Amino acid sequence: MTVPGALPATRDASGAAAEAIHIENLHKKFGQLHVLKGVSLFARDGDIVAIIGGSGSGKSTLLRCINCLENPTSGVIRVNGEEIRLKADSQGNSMPADRRQIERIRSRLGMVFQSFNLWTHMTLIENVVEVPVHVLGVPRAEAIAEAERLLERVGLSEKRDVYPAFLSGGQQQRGAIARALAIKPRVMLFDEPTSALDPELVGEVLKVIADLAIEGRTMILVTHEMKFAREVATHVVYLYNGLVEEEGPPETVFGAPKSERLKQFLRNVN
């Protein structure tokens, strides 16, 4: 099934799905704190990669490096085959070498945060059309029509003119997903999208994400919902202390883990 309005999956010369995200030997330091210690990760178009691990393992930092919200200390990040170029500043810290490239890369990535991050002074539909109109140059009438379609898709048509303060947490997060989809990204990034929700609201957000998975959208998902990751992901990565401790298909990672740390982690979360 093809996602309405989504870009079709591309193929490489061999006929395999094209590279969506390529991360190689990624390091990230905050001062003396070494958060990512050489992480590598690969996803092709249509892959759903679930990143799991305990608090402080580097999951969210990894996601923020992909979206250029954090600059890696060293390593390689490619998005749809394009490597993000970095340079050192006067203090020796890495920074983007080309701001226009970062803007272009971000236009291919839809980001959904833990805490929704909707603009509180805008209605829901204004949140969804803001970036397409003012950053991507989409005609306003076209952006509004697409926003209405997306809000209907996430079950929020009747909330189009409501401000975030008057929405539940689950509604805000579904609105945030619609906003991320509005730029027609090649890859969706989810940073623990249900962690700030009351338990009774988790299901409505997971259903929207599961629908995206069924429709074939490429996603990298940081999550603590193990049952959901097992059912939805095509590949699971377990991070421990800034390193990939174990990875593989969900039936292997969850059903036959090799690492003692992963076994203990799964016992603690299940």
Strand content: 25-35%
User: What is the gyration radius calculated from CA atoms?
Assistant: 18 Å
The percent of residues in helical segments reads 25-40%
Q: In terms of per-residue confidence, which ranges show pLDDT below 50 for 5 or more consecutive residues?
A: 1-7
What can be said about the biggest beta sheet?
A: 6 strands, mixed
Shape: globular
Give the overall pLDDT as a whole number.
92
Q: What this model shows, in words?
A:
The structure is a single chain. The chain has 270 residues and is α/β, with parallel strands linked by helices. 34% of the residues lie in helices and 25% in strands. The chain has a six-stranded mixed beta sheet, sandwiched between helices. A four-stranded antiparallel beta sheet has the order 2-1-4-5, covered by helices on one side. Strands 6-7 form a two-stranded antiparallel ribbon. Strand 4 and strand 5 form a beta hairpin. The longest helix has 16 residues. The chain is globular and about 50 Å long.
